[in-house]
Every structure is written in C-alpha cells, then in structure tokens.
Specification:
The chain folds into two domains: about 15-150, Beta Polymerase, domain 2, CATH 3.30.460.10; about 155-295, no CATH class. It has helices at about 5-15, 20-35, 55, 85-95, 150-165, 170-185, 190-200, 215-230, 255-275, 280-290, 300; strands spanning about 45-50, 70-75, 105-110, 115, 120-130, 135-140, 145-150, 240, 240-245. The strands form two sheets. Strands 1, 2, 3, 4, 5, 6 and 7 form a seven-stranded mixed beta sheet that branches. It has a two-stranded antiparallel ribbon with strand order 8-9. With about 325 residues, it is α+β, with helices and mostly antiparallel strands. The protein has eleven helices and nine strands. Strand 5 and strand 6 form a beta hairpin. Helix 6 (about 170-185) packs across helix 8 and helix 9 (about 255-275) runs antiparallel to helix 10 (about 280-290). Helices cover about 45% and strands about 15% of the residues.
C-alpha cells in the first residue's frame, strides 16, 4: 500500500527542516549578505548574493539529533584586478576575523568560508567571480579560479521537477537523503545523490508513475536501481549545467559498489512495501526502510506481545 497521507505527515513531522529554523537561517544569511554588501572590502565590486545547494533546491532536511545542518550562500563579485584567486577567500576571512561578532565562528575551507552557528547550522559563504557570462569559484589551496555554473544547476533541477508537476522530485530527494542519514549504510554527497535521482525523471511515459509521493519514490528508485545494475564500474556523474565538472570527487569504486548493493536492497524493500495489501503489514515494511516514526499502526498490530494465560503462544500469534 502507498499510504500517501502517511508519507505527507512523515515529511512534515520528521523529515522537513522546521519552519522556525528556516526563518532563523534566512535572517542570519540576510545579515551576512548586508554586512558584506556594505563593507569597505567588497562594496565596490559586490554584485549579488543568493542561496545555493540544498537550500536553493528546497531539498534541505532536518539534521539527526544533536547534529547541525549545512546551508550555502554564494557571493557574486566583480573581479578585483590586484587580487589572486586565493585572496577572495583569505581577505573575506580576515574581514570576519576582525569583527568580534564573527571572529570565533569563522573558518576556511578550500572554496569557501564557514560560519558556525553552534548547535544549529553551518553557513558556507562562497565567493564567486562573475566575468561576463562566466562564473568562477576560488580554490585557495591551489590558488586557482575554477569554472562554476552560476545558477545553472538549480535551474536544471527545477526543470526536472517541473516535468513531474513540481515538488514531487523535491520530496523524493528529501526522503532519500533522510534514508541515507538515518541508515548510514552508504555514502553519497547530497549533490551527487540529488543528481542521480533527478536524472531518473527522463521523459514521462505516464503521469501515473508520479501521481503521488510513494509512487514517485518507487518509480525513481527502480529507475536508479536499473541504471546502477547495468553499470558495474562507477559512472562519472557530471554537472548537467557544466559538463566539464563532475561530482565524483568524494566517491570511489568501493563506495560505489556499496551504494549499488544497498540501493538494490532498499528498492526491493520499497517494492515490497508498496505492493503489500495489508495496511499494517505495509506500514511495518515502510518502517523497515524509514524507521518507526513512519505511519501509525492499529492498536493490536503495534503490540509486540500480549500477556496470556494460554500456554499456546506467549507472543499472541
């Protein structure tokens, strides 16, 4: 059984990031945008700032207990003629270090700065150089400008979601990211996992394949499993908006083999759960995949055992 309403409740109550946390994220990101836009350091070359990654795609999910979630903003800048690529990160890092409100929060990564709002989230600030119609991020370790796609990936993902009516793909990605996080049986960066899932939309042979959340989940899962099973060797997953970029840098053949095996298992479990005709047995099968917070069982079936005076069955079977 599909349990479409149970999936909707599960997303809103367990998977989705709390609206209040989104509001706090937006407020703090807007503060950072304003701080940089009006700073003496950047104001002459500041162009714009926009959310990126899971935040822009609306696929961000609630972190596991006692964990923080990540969000990205990209700061678009015109070129500073006297700056090397590494300076875009180093100089903005120094700017935050000189501000007492942020000096203990800021750190550097290869292509961004990170502000740690302890106990809640990390905000990655990504300097992006805009030159005509081309965009570049900065690799401070190698002191290089690397091409990026601006908002191209976000637009591609939204176009894939639009094919199936909007929001369906978003919800499937959230569910799969949740599955990854709670099971921890496979590893795949969010952008890699999102791209794999979105590629399974393809052409629509029947809208019935995407008419609700559980049907869409099973359709995409089966298509992805078919793709994985015919690819024994790790495929290169390219950025659809920037073909010279791929998302495999955090994967290898061993990780791929494990993902391929685990995804086959989860797909089989999904197919079994959706085809099960008993309501409670179907809920139990979905719970094997997503945990006990999914759905509700009838009173009798939710009991693990019953006290009985009969010697025949202490488990009430």
């Amino acid at each position: 059984m599909k349990h479409a309403q149970a999936f909707s409740n599960f997303l809103s109550g367990t998977v989705n990031l709390n609206p209040t946390r989104i509001e706090i994220l937006e407020q703090r990101a807007n503060t950072i945008k304003g701080l940089l836009k009006n700073s003496e350091l950047l104001k002459e070359n500041y162009v714009d700032a926009r959310e990126q990654g899971s935040w822009a795609l609306k696929t961000i999910i609630k972190p596991r207990p006692n964990k923080e979630f990540d969000a990205d903003i990209r700061i678009y800048l015109n070129e500073f003629p006297d700056w090397e690529p590494k300076d875009y990160i180093e100089n903005i890092y120094s700017f935050f270090c000189s501000n007492s409100a942020y000096s203990d929060m800021v750190s550097r990564k290869t292509r961004c700065l990170t502000l740690n709002y302890s106990g809640d989230f990390h905000l990655d600030v990504i300097p992006c150089l805009q030159k005509a119609q081309e965009f570049f991020v900065m690799n401070r370790h190698e002191n290089l400008m690397e091409p990026t796609d601006g908002d191209g990936y976000t637009e591609w993902f939204k176009s894939q979601d639009k094919i199936v009516g909007g929001k369906t793909l978003i919800k499937v990605v959230r569910l799969v990211k949740y599955l990854r996080d709670i099971k921890q049986t496979f590893t795949a960066k969010s952008v890699l996992l999102t791209t794999l899932l979105a590629h399974q939309i393809g052409t629509i042979e029947s809208y019935d394949d995407f008419k609700d959340i559980p049907t869409s989940l099973c359709t995409i899962s089966n298509r992805l499993n078919n793709f994985l099973q015919v690819n024994l060797n790790m495929p290169i997953i390219k950025n659809p908006a920037l073909p010279e970029e791929d998302f495999n840098r955090h994967w290898d053949q061993d990780k791929y083999n494990n993902f391929r095996e685990k995804w086959c298992t989860y797909t089989e479990k999904m197919n079994s759960a959706i085809s099960e005709t008993s309501r409670d047995e179907s809920i139990k099968k979905w719970r094997i995949i997503f945990g006990d917070e999914f759905g509700t069982l009838t009173e009798n079936s939710s009991k693990t055992f019953q006290i009985s005076t009969s010697p025949a069955s202490p488990w009430g079977k």
